[in-house]
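User: I want to check something. If I give you two sequences, will you return the structure for each one separately, not as a complex?

Assistant: Yes, each is folded on its own. Here is the first sequence with its structure:
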Amino acid sequence: MNSGKSRDTSLPEERFAKESITWVGTGNMGFPMVSNLIASGWPVTVYNRTPERARPLLEAGGRMAGSLSEAISNHRIVVTMLQDDEAVRSVCESPSGILDGLLEGGIHVSMGTLSPTFVEKLTQQHAQKGQTLVSAPVFGRPDRAQSATLTIVTAGPKKTLESLDPLFRALGSTLYQVGENPAQANWVKILGNLTLGGLLETLAETLSLSRKVGIPPETLVEILNTALYRSPVFQNYGNLMARESYQPAGFNLKLGLKDMRLVSTEADRLEVPLPLADLLRSGLLAGINRGYGEWDWSALSRVRDEDAGAIPDHDSGY
């Protein structure tokens, strides 16, 4: 894995041993990721707080654990794909959790979007137990998780990352290594989400004005992407906003607000002003207060449309 560079993931998987692993968290992202591992021949023991949600993985060939301690038992590698610091803290610090249950010399791979400050502490906690933490947050929505085309940003001890290479290649098409300090990967992830949030704000405001002046939003998205961006991300989110297609959510407003709060907290700690993050927090919070919390975070466009009076009847079609 080359530092700071994308990696060719076309090497045949048969070259690498598929070690039995534990996977914790089978939500919108975790479920398709585990499915890909099982389909690729990885022995996976799954633990989820809601067993019914993970049961189809048992039918696909995975093993279901009745408790977290059972899931961790005798496994050297545990992967968590959980949505926030508190969820990871819960499974790590509970009496039967990862810190106490993972074997000495074991590896915890954290793939969720977490705060760098929390990850710094968790790195130390694992080290005190003779364990290693690796951060590997991902860029991509559930459809990319399903197609195993996620971009994975990794950080941790170099030799450990090299040993995990076959695991990451089964989940994503592009891998980056950004350092040996796990928190660095989490910094890249939250900075990326801030950048994406800025794109959403730009699109939301632009399309609100286009609706007011009678320019079809889908036409505007096509023109701007062709003339200025040539970005599948711009095209994807632009079309969701233009078509007002906010459900089902690939990444909902509540999670978007969580990430903007997260990056703002870290920036405040470092005394770095982030006026864009403040604007995004305000818009996402407004959307949640209007009942859109479970909608895709592209529904920020709905908030800006309402503020602009660009939707004559707010209740029609929703």
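And separately, the second sequence with its own structure:
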Amino acid sequence: MVLKTMRGNKSINTKPEVNLRKALLLAGLRGYRLNWEKALGCPDIVYPRRKVAIFVQGCFWHSCPYCKISLPKTHKRYWLKKLSNNKARDQFVQKVLKKEGWRVVVAWECQIKKNPNKVIDKIRNILRTNRGNIYTL
């Protein structure tokens, strides 16, 4: 039952991704690529020339530090391991991309939903500057 439920969840073109992309276009921040396989982790949105990789993280699947969503009541051990592995993989990918000179942006589902303009402003500022490597919005 758990695996059947997980299969129903999309990994690309999720609602938060689509909403962020629409906001980027409205803000005039064009020129990005989607799910770019040339970068480790296949970032959701990439500005290749500027070496900016944006990961749109779902609050449940990636253990959002802002929402603190609780685990399902059944199969707790499974979910603890699954979400812990997701978090470890995210950190590994970000670390490797940083070493390769990428600026990594983590945009959380809740923040895109709550205040998309704030997320866009931060991304715009990151695209303008060459400082730092990992940004959590």
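Because they were folded independently, the notes below concern the second chain alone. Helices lie at 2-7, 15-26, 76-99, 109-114, 116-128. The two ends are 34 Å apart (CA to CA).
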